[in-house]
From TrEMBL:
GO terms for biological process: NAD+ biosynthetic process. It comes from Lactobacillus rodentium. Coiled coil: none annotated. Residues 2-39 form the Nicotinate phosphoribosyltransferase C-terminal domain. This is Nicotinate phosphoribosyltransferase C-terminal domain-containing protein. InterPro entries: NAPRTase_C (IPR041619), Nicotinate_pribotase-like_C (IPR036068).
Length: 52
């Protein structure tokens, strides 16, 4: 368990303070792979077709 805590603390130390602040934190940019993006868009399309 101590290893996990140490690993988490080290990774948090690598983030800018703007991402870690409690009040109005900056959005952390995340990229999707093309395959995941396509899957996401297909799911959205399916849901929209069921709503209409």
């Amino acid at each position: 368990m101590q290893e996990i805590k140490k690993f988490a603390a080290q990774n948090l130390d690598g983030l800018w303070d703007e991402y870690k602040r409690a009040l109005n934190p900056q959005d952390y940019p995340v990229d999707l792979s093309q395959k995941l993006y396509d899957h996401k868009m297909n799911l959205i399309s399916e849901i929209r077709s069921h709503i209409k």
